[in-house]
Amino acid sequence: WRQTYQGAFFQDSLHGRGDYLWDHHNNRWSYEGHFYSDGKEGYGRVSYPEGGLFEGLFAGNRRFGPGVFTQPDGRQDVGLWRGPRLVRLCAVVDGVPRLGTSLEAKVRLLRFRTLVPIKE
């Protein structure tokens, strides 16, 4: 294994913004992003030896929350992540239907309206 790190340290730990590179028999992994106490934490980007790329949030040194995994062929998995698993896939919608277009729908929406008094 060959490993290199360029970035911030705190009390001998990778901590803050940094770039980490692992090279094992010409299989290169890299991480660019934030570290907390030697682990990936916050926003970052990992590139994998086979050409994949993950960009998103990390917690506890694992993918966590919103992120995009781009496969070597360009296809993307977009959604919420928990470790290596895509928990919920997000989909792009063409348009959002208008709310309250009919009289009945407007009356139904009025139930959820709250007036907030404003003082000058």
Rounded radius of gyration (Å): 22 Å
What oligomeric state is this? single chain
Helices, by number, come to: 1
Residue share in β-strands:
over 45%
Number of strands: 8
Low-pLDDT residue intervals, each spanning 5 or more residues: none
Q: Which topology does CATH recognise?
A: Histone H3 K4-specific methyltransferase SET7/9 N-terminal domain
Average of per-residue pLDDT values: 86
End-to-end CA span? 67 Å
Q: Count structural domains.
A: 1
Assign the CATH superfamily: Histone H3 K4-specific methyltransferase SET7/9 N-terminal domain
Class per helix and strand makeup: mainly beta
Largest sheet: 8 strands, antiparallel
* Series of secondary-structure elements, N-terminal to C-terminal: EEEEEEEEH
**Roughly what percent helix?**
under 10%
- Provide the spatial order of strands within the biggest beta sheet: 1-2-3-4-5-6-7-8
Q: At the first level of CATH, what is the class?
A: Mainly Beta
- What's the architecture in CATH terms? Single Sheet
Keywords summarizing the entry:
7% helix; Histone H3 K4-specific methyltransferase SET7/9 N-terminal domain; mainly beta; 120 residues; eight-stranded antiparallel sheet
